[in-house]
Amino acid sequence: MAKSRTSGILFAGILGLAAGVAIGLLLAPEKGSKTRKKLVRKLSEVSENVKQELTDELEKLRSVFPGDAEEETANKKAKTTRKTPTS
Fold this sequence. Notes:
Structural class: mainly alpha
Number of domains: 1
Helix content: over 70%
Distance between the termini: 54 Å
Number of strands: 0
Strand content: under 5%
Shape: elongated
Order of helices and strands: HHH
Number of helices: 3
């Protein structure tokens, strides 16, 4: 249930962001170059916020399932240290 709620919130946020950007571009009183700079800056901020939120959620999941992360790390180490046979 939490997964579908989180997905719904994320979808609503993305949809709201897209609608806000579209309306903002249509009603922008400034030159296009200034508007684009603002848009790039805002998208960068949103991107950083999303990355942070995803990182936080991943850490929560790792705290709930700590064995899985340890196994994955061990498997990665084993794969990288395994020697390939020579002919």
